[in-house]
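Supplementary Text 2. Reproducibility record for the structural model of the 380-residue chain.

All settings were left at their defaults, and a single model was retained for analysis rather than an ensemble. We include the record here because the model underlies the residue-level annotations in Supplementary Table 4.
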Amino acid sequence: MAKNIFYWSLGLFILALIFLGAYNFAFKNNVNDPVADKEKKIAFEQNGSAALFPQGKVESPINENVLGAVSGADGNIYYYSQDDRSVKKATLDGKNKTVLLSNLPGTPIRIIWSAKRDLALLYLRQMSGGTVWYFSDIAKKTIAPLKPEISRLSWDNLGEKIYYQYTDPATGMRTLNISNPDGSDWKKLADLGNKEVFIASVPESSMISFWNKPLAADASLIEMVSSTGEFRKTLFSGKFGADFLWSPNGEAALFSAGDEKNSHSPLLYEVQAKDGQVKSLGVPTFVSKTVWSKDGKTVYYALPGALPENAIVPDDYFSKPLYTKDTFWKMDTETGKKTRLIDLAESSQNLDSTSLFLSPNEDALFFTDRQTQKLHRIDL
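Retained model, structure tokens:
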């Protein structure tokens, strides 16, 4: 009898040990991990569909301060080097640098490249302190000033004509115009009143879009007109401080805006060119931190770290020394699926990205850091 009781007790003891071991193993593998929890929280906030196994890392292919960097169909990066004050090109890995234009009559503030990268519009600060737009034929290494009343320039889709805002020096009234790149053979397309506008051609169409300068206190309005000055129409109005970026096929545009006047946070939206329908993409970022893929469905974007609670956007972000720490994502605009591009362990740098562009094969994402003016690359 005593022997049976002993064996029964031993069996129960062994079962208890097995249960305790299994419980401890399960608990150990489910204990809260602060890093993993932070990743899951970010993924959930990015619509619960983000992939948690990113592949890329941030690299700096060009060890120069850059301005106006873009990629070309020939597999080169075109940019202005602030270090040696010249317009240059280099391969996507930053090698084989070539000087395209030097001895500029001023310091560039902005560069707008034509589609073929053979022509450029340069906004220069001159020695006298004034600023003037110049037209440059890169292949011929020529550069010539445009009229000082010309501003807010944009290329047409072929890179053969320019659109611009002309301000009458006597009345202050503005018009939208089209001309040759050197300003000759111009034609007025629309009256704009006295408010300043931003201008962009609508890809794969003969339409030009224009919208009031993004200011947090101003209601947004984007209009379109044909290159002949006909068929003027309003695409979208509402929200505040909106800025726009057209998809490569011209079927939709991204825009960032505040839902109310003097908002403290931007939000990303998509508007359809066909009917002006708007949907929120649920991403709190600026459109200046986005770039479309060729298919017009995928958007690559940088998600900024928290701005000061009292910041008014977009005004304060662009007019004050405010810098964000960005993380990098891509999104399918049709499904809303969002995927992280860089692991948190690779995101230790404080990078405030702008001027995003993709390599011709869309296997790399490039951007310029606003604070350092360095070009960075993420392999996709």
